[in-house]
Amino acid sequence: MKKAVVLLSGGLDSATAMAMALAEGYEVYAVSFRYGQRHAVELECAVEQAAEGVKQHKIVDIDLSSFGGSALTTDMAVPKHDAVEELTEEIPVTYVPARNTVFLSYALAWAEVLEADDIFIGVNALDYSGYPDCRPEFIAAYETMANLATVAGVQGRKLTIHTPLIDLTKAEIIQRGLALGVDYAKTTSCYDPAPDGRACGHCDSCLLRQKGFYDLDKVDPREYVS
After folding, report:
1. Residues 52, 21 contacting (CB under 8 angstroms)
2. What pLDDT sits at residue 64?
3. Residues 56-70: tens digit of each pLDDT
């Protein structure tokens, strides 16, 4: 079987991307990160998601909170809204500086050890919060760099970074996942969950997720505070 490293955050998008990799016949090696984020709910979800069908799941400890700069790694307030229409095109304070660059570097290192030629990441350039490291240009540039930086690349074996969700709406992502049997009750998208794990319902990520289910006339199985 072909091997693939899948970045698994515990969220809706990465769970769907992993399901797509499995459906394409890859032997999946999932990697999640304890990076100093303000809650552990997403990692608990990632463990649940990786319990079936995954060859190996690693949780890697790094500390992006030591640099600060994000509401996800500091005590900075997470922006809240009442409706998705209130979201702006400005890059929000929930952006974690260089996060996907760092995460992909770890995934690349593991892929090189595994002799895997494929990495899957659930970035999305439509229904997302405007993060610069979720754009197709970033992924293309990183893939070019990766093929210059590894033994496999130098020897002519091309690494491919797969972004199967890059041009899908949130509703389309959910639709694909449901068709593949993704249990979205085991995913969380919230930036600021309650201590018991319930989603806040008002952060950018919650609102975009809720809109996706609403557009499909489906009920979001994740429990919300309000």
Report:
1. no
2. 97
3. 999 999 999 999 999
Name the residue range of residue 25's domain. 3-78+96-187
- Rounded to whole angstroms, the Cα distance separating 187 from 141 reads 29
The CATH number given to whatever domain includes residue 174 is 3.40.50.620
pLDDT value at residue 128: 62
- Which residue stretches of the chain are H helix? 12-23, 41-49, 99-114, 136-149, 151-154, 170-179, 204-215
Start-to-end CA span in the chain (Å): 44
d(CA 62, CA 64): 6
Residue 60 lies in a domain: yes
Residue 16 lies in a domain: yes
Structure tokens at 138: 């970033």
48, part of any domain: yes
The pTM score is 0.95
Stretches in the chain below the pLDDT threshold 70: 127-129
- HEC per residue, 140-152: HHHHHHHHHHCHH
The structural domain count of the chain equals 1
pLDDT value of residue 87:
78
Burial of 218 from C-beta contacts in 10 A (0-12 / 13-18 / 19+): middle
The number of C-alpha atoms within 13 Å of 131 and in the hemisphere containing its C-beta is 21
